[in-house]
Write a structure and sequence with these properties.
Number of strands of chain B: 22
Strand content of chain B: 15-25%
CATH superfamily of the largest domain in chain B: Histidine kinase-like ATPase, C-terminal domain
Structural class of chain A: mainly beta
Strand order of the largest sheet of chain B: 14-18-19-17-16-15
CATH class of the largest domain in chain B: Alpha Beta
Oligomer: heterodimer
Shape of chain B: globular
Helix content of chain B: 40-55%
Order of helices and strands of chain A: EEEEEHEEEHEEH
Distance between the termini of chain A: 26 Å
Distance between the termini of chain B: 55 Å
CATH topology of the largest domain in chain B: Heat Shock Protein 90
Number of helices of chain A: 3
Chain lengths: ~150, ~725
């Protein structure tokens, strides 16, 4: 759903911060952004899955993106942000530190992920680009889910 | 093609309603109702099934319905007596008709040809009297069909063979009612055209001036010349389904000029008279086709009105609409969210410390009432009377009674009791099974009953009622009751209980629910189908229900099912374990107790058991098994909730505290995530947080094959 990278037309991305790093996803996959509310933990699930919260009556699983990328994470506080994303027909909450920017991206500016990045990061990062001297990694959110499905018994 | 499928689906849906109506009316007849309206209703139901089936070319169904209809017509006209044996035959014929419908729909087994043919013969004997039935029914049917109804109507043409010159002159003047019944002239003409080349002439001389035109009435006459050497019956068959809704004459072309169609009205003055003729009756009385043109110069509006109101009152159709179930479910979901939102809002307002008398609090109370009302109304949309299930049972009882040679009367009660559609649908199977059991195992043979001083006819009672927010279904018989000695003997023989086990009568009765238990000495075709009461119990439990039995030797047994009214909400016990709030389904809970430190006993290193009613049950620490905490609840603290799994095994769930009992709305985890072991579903509590509903069976099973504590923490 976030394909068409070859399309030269500019598209809008939403940038967010985890720790010191900046990432972004296609704005079209983000449905809403809300503050952190305590999640109900689920038994026998990976540690990056913070649990589930109530999104207007629907049960929304929360993925701690930082933990998913193998970054250091702290306990979430009220200042943390949940991006509600529509991924492969499901609603998933992505826990990040803060939403920082909305970026107009020219596809041509994206460079392939350099080899220096860790395995976890490279698994989700489709490419990197620079905006005003900041380095931003482009995330493909659909890659976050297959692992969840693979574990389904 | 899709449209056709839709129409077909609608037809079968209507068939179901018609068949239900048919059976209900027949049962009325059996009970002694002897008014003309009942037999008329029976006739109409069969007629409608036949009509629809004809349109879809379901020949077997049409043939059977036709034989049945012919007999009903005789009964309706009073030419044959509607006595008890006849009604019984009709009931069985209705069953076979239902089989034919199911087979035609493609979801039923093939119709038992032998049974069907035997009934056809029986019906024909009743219709024509002894010996009057044609021997070869299939052939007779072929010849009969489509011809006979016409014969009634136009006796003068009955023996007219094929047209002399190989051509027919057909004059057709439809009544407005024919169009109202969704027939269409063009289709009739097209159908005629299949018989041979036709030339059609339209006579519009009957058209009244515009100001007098009644758009719902027809003023046109078609004169058709059909060049085909076919039998008259073949021509008339085309008009089979519009008979009575049109003036029709069929005669050899070049014959005498048609005396027939009532002269088309030459001015607007005859409309009222025409209407009167058209409305003469819903089923045409045997009358010659050339309906005599009424001479009455009823010209004023009042007369028209009178003619209209003279129409026999059709059974008032209940104002209903068919709605896609998905739309209803969406509405129910949204309302569920509204309820949660409202509860959260109320909690926030309370937390904010506003006075109870403040405008906000008062408004909020009104909102709460409204929300509840909306929720009840929405749930009521999905609610259906259990009648649809109960209705299927008389047939089953007849069949089982026939097979077992027992005499059974089925008494039903509380058919109008409403319950959620999903629950209704899943009730049929357990009820069927238990009724079979009641007749097969419960009731005695007529001889044995007489010997025991009872009426030879056994009574099986099927009742539904609402009790404390649940629906209760009772199935009772006045048979011999449970033979406890034998049940006990079998349980011992099968190794289900120890030989010296001391069991109360109640406990013995409940042994029949154990897997692998079957009391039938000879495994009969009826209840011995490899499924026992344990299967019934499991299917009831999967609906969040409970089943119990009470039995008095010599007096009979009563099975009581208690089910939730809907599967969208669940009665749960809200418990706390390691800071988390969890919900245990109330239907699984046997009892809760607060064990003292000395009540817990350890078997081996860490497997604890607790003494409960003279037995030791394993202890499952919820927080630990769910991975919320590494250590169990310290001995002497916490509460033990004794649960029973679907297999009947008991376990004590250790939790920190019980917060209370409440009804919760079930939310799926799968829709946005996936199934999680040990969790049946989720719900949202009044504070807006998600609480997990425990899957007791999985939890207990998990605890048994508990991994080493280190692996218990949330996996990395």
């Amino acid at each position: 759903m976030t394909e068409a990278l070859t399309n030269a037309a500019a598209r809008e991305l939403i940038a967010f911060r985890i720790g010191e790093q900046e990432f972004c996803v296609d704005i079209m996959s983000v449905r809403e952004i809300r503050g952190w509310t305590p999640a109900t933990p689920l038994p026998r699930t990976p540690s990056y899955l913070k649990g589930v919260i109530n999104l207007r009556g629907a049960v929304l699983p929360i993925v701690d993106l930082g933990a998913r990328f193998g970054l250091r994470t702290a306990e979430p506080t009220a200042r943390h942000v949940i991006m509600v994303a529509h991924i492969a027909g499901r609603l998933v909450g992505l826990l990040v530190d803060a939403v920082s920017d909305i970026i107009q991206l020219d596809e041509g500016a994206v460079q392939p992920t350099p080899d220096v990045a860790s395995e976890e990061v490279r698994a989700f990062v489709k490419g990197i680009f620079a905006v005003d001297g900041r380095l931003i990694s482009l995330i493909d959110p659909s890659l976050i889910l297959p692992a969840m499905e693979a574990e389904a018994a | 093609m899709d449209t056709m499928e839709e129409i077909r689906a609608t037809f079968f849906q209507e068939c179901e309603e018609l068949l239900a109506e048919l059976e209900a009316k027949l049962l009325l007849l059996e009970a002694g109702a002897d008014d003309g309206e009942t037999i008329n209703a029976v006739f109409r139901a069969v007629h409608s099934v036949k009509g629809g089936a004809g349109a879809f070319g379901l020949d077997a169904l049409v043939r059977f319905a036709h034989v049945l209809e012919t007999l009903l017509d005789e009964l309706r006209a009073g030419r044959k007596p509607c006595d008890e044996p006849t009604v019984r035959t009709l009931l069985r014929a209705a069953d076979v008709l239902a089989d034919h419908v199911a087979a035609a729909r493609g979801d039923g087994p093939e119709v038992d040809e032998g049974r069907s043919a035997a009934l056809v013969a029986e019906l024909e004997t009743l219709t024509h009297g002894e010996g009057g039935a044609p021997a070869d029914l299939a052939e007779a049917e072929e010849d009969d069909f489509g011809f006979q109804p016409v014969a009634l109507e136009i006796p003068s043409l009955e023996d007219a063979p094929a047209a002399a010159g190989g051509a027919w002159r057909i004059v057709l003047r439809p009544h407005g009612r024919m169009y109202a019944n969704a027939n269409e002239t063009a289709l009739l003409l097209r159908e005629l055209g299949r018989l041979g080349p036709i030339s059609v002439e339209l006579d519009d001389s009957g058209l009244p001036p515009l100001d007098a035109l009644d758009p719902a009435e027809n003023h046109l006459t078609w004169i058709i010349r059909l060049e085909a050497p076919v039998a008259e019956a073949a021509v008339r068959e085309v008009f089979d389904f519009v008979e009575g809704d049109c003036d029709l004459s069929v005669e050899p072309a070049d014959g005498p000029a048609a005396p027939l169609p009532p002269p088309p009205p030459t001015d607007d003055l005859d409309i009222a008279a025409l209407l009167a003729a058209a409305q003469a009756g819903p089923e045409p009385a045997p009358e010659p086709a050339p309906a005599p043109a009424p001479a009455a110069p009823a010209t004023d509006a009042a007369a028209t009105q009178a003619a209209l109101t003279a129409t026999p009152p059709a059974a008032a159709a209940p104002a209903t609409i068919r709605v896609d179930l998905e739309r209803v479910d969406r509405l129910i979901n949204v309302v569920g969210e509204l309820v949660i939102q409202q509860a959260m809002l109320a909690q926030r307002v309370t937390e904010s410390g506003l006075a109870r008398s403040s405008g906000i609090s008062v408004g909020l109370e009104d909102l709460e009432l409204l929300t509840r009302e909306i929720q009840d109304s929405v749930m009521a949309i999905r609610a259906q009377p259990v009648k649809s299930v109960f209705q299927r049972m008389p047939r089953l009882v007849r069949e089982v009674a026939e097979q077992t040679g027992k005499r059974v009367r089925l008494v039903t009660d509380g058919e109008a009791t409403e319950v959620d559609k999903t629950v209704v649908e899943r009730l049929a199977e357990p009820i069927t099974h238990m009724l079979r059991n009641a007749i097969d195992h419960g009731l005695e043979t007529p001889e044995a009953r007489i010997a025991a001083g009872k009426s030879p006819e056994g009574v099986v009672r099927l009742a539904a009622l609402h009790r404390s927010g649940r629906i209760v279904i009772e199935i009772s018989d006045d048979g011999c009751g449970i033979n406890r000695e034998r049940v006990r003997g079998i349980a011992v023989a099968k190794g289900l209980i120890a030989e010296d086990a001391a069991l109360t009568e109640d406990e013995i009765d409940n042994l029949i629910f154990l897997p692998g238990f079957s009391t039938a000495e000879t495994v009969s075709d009826i209840s011995g189908r490899g499924v026992g009461m344990d299967v019934v119990r499991r299917s009831i439990q999967s609906l969040g229900g409970r089943i119990s039995i009470s039995s008095t030797p010599g007096r009979g047994s009563t099975f009581t099912l208690s089910l939730p009214l809907t599967l969208a909400v669940l009665d749960g016990m809200v418990v706390g374990a390691a800071e988390q709030t969890l919900v245990a389904p109330l239907s699984t809970i046997v009892e809760s107790l607060t064990p003292k430190a000395g009540d817990l006993h350890y078997v081996g290193g860490r497997d604890a058991v607790i003494r409960f009613r003279e037995a030791f049950v394993p202890v499952v620490d919820v927080a630990q098994t769910m991975g919320f905490r590494d250590t169990p609840v310290p001995a002497g603290q916490g509460v033990a909730v004794v649960v029973e799994t679907e297999s009947g095994a008991r376990a004590a769930l250790m939790v920190d505290a019980i917060h209370g009992q409440r009804q919760v709305v079930i939310k799926s985890l799968e829709s946005n995530f996936r199934q999680v072991e040990g969790v049946a579903a989720a719900t949202i509590l009044g504070d807006g947080r998600v609480a997990l509903i425990l899957d007791v069976d999985a939890l207990v099973a998990n605890a048994r094959r508990r991994p080493a504590p280190a692996e218990l923490k949330l996996a990395s």
